[in-house]
Amino acid sequence: MGLVLICSLVLGVSAYAADKKSTGVINLKYAGGAEGAGTYRSALAIASLVNKYSKRIKIFVQITPGTTVTPKMIQAGQVDIAAGSQSGETQATQGLAKYKGNPVTNMSRLFVWGESTYVIFSPVEKNIFSINDLAGKKVGIGAKTQPTGKTCETILKTLGLAEKVKYSFNTSAVELGERIKDGLYDAGFYGVSHPWAVLMDLATTRKMRIIGIGGENLDKVVKVLAPRYGALTMPANIYPGQDKGFPTVGAMQTTCVRTDLDEDVAYEIIKIVETHLDEFAMAYPPAKFYFPNMNSQKRAIAPLHPATRRWLKEKGIKVE
Fold first, then answer.
1. Do 187 and 134 form a contact (C-beta atoms < 8 A)?
2. Domain boundary residue among 227, 250, 273?
3. Of the candidates 292, 233, 302, which has an alpha carbon nearest to the alpha carbon of residue 84?
4. What is the pTM of this model?
5. pLDDT of 120-168, one tens digit each?
6. Is the peptide bond before 227 cis (omega within 30 degrees of 0)?
7. CATH of the domain at 246
8. In angstroms, how far is the first alpha carbon of the chain from the final one?
């Protein structure tokens, strides 16, 4: 995509402040999340659009930890922009989990571009049609040290399935996919932004059934996981053979910025993404569903950046 990827972190004065003064070029560092994840691909797509259409802004994407960690990078002044999430924003701004006693106060929401949803996926011959069908099955649920693995375990416990499902934590998402291919797992249970490379590979090479969490089960899970997660709808046609959308639990995927990022610069980024949404959707198809959803855009967890408030007001959207 013509992007320069910077994998080392540079502390000190922000790139924006330094380069604007010296050259007139505005260089911004973007913490994009883990390589291969939807957050990282969306970061590359956003940076590619801005670098292509802006005459003054250049965005450099970094491979970083996930969205519960990227707010710390904004807090520390390591980056100007960060891949965000409903969960990460909640923890960071409310001083929860690793942010206990040290909430992030210099981060604002720029926009919502997607959703991270929890899905259950299995070869069709395993006959898994709902989360209740995982009872007695061997299921991979991600790393125990990561939010995804912990949340999957919490969901199983909430629904009384933890003692019935033969679930295992994995060291990596790739390992989970390979164990399904080898028949060592009957199913996977994972929360991620879609399309996800591991599941795309599985769905492309074999017939997979991909489902969410619905009905009373969803109500029970949301009650336990709110406000970090809520009820969402997984769009249809994200993966081969997945021709219907379905309800499940998940979190909004967002882009956050330093609160003191110049309003006109932030506004230009928003307008470039909006104007060229079709190009964005080529790299990240669900964006065409999520970015235009003004109900999500106005739903603040981290405070909305002044540029975002300006953009929404121009559309007649009431923001508090």
1. yes
2. 250
3. 302
4. 0.73
5. 999 999 999 999 999 999 999 988 877 788 999 999 999 999 999 999 9
6. yes
7. 3.40.190.10
8. 37
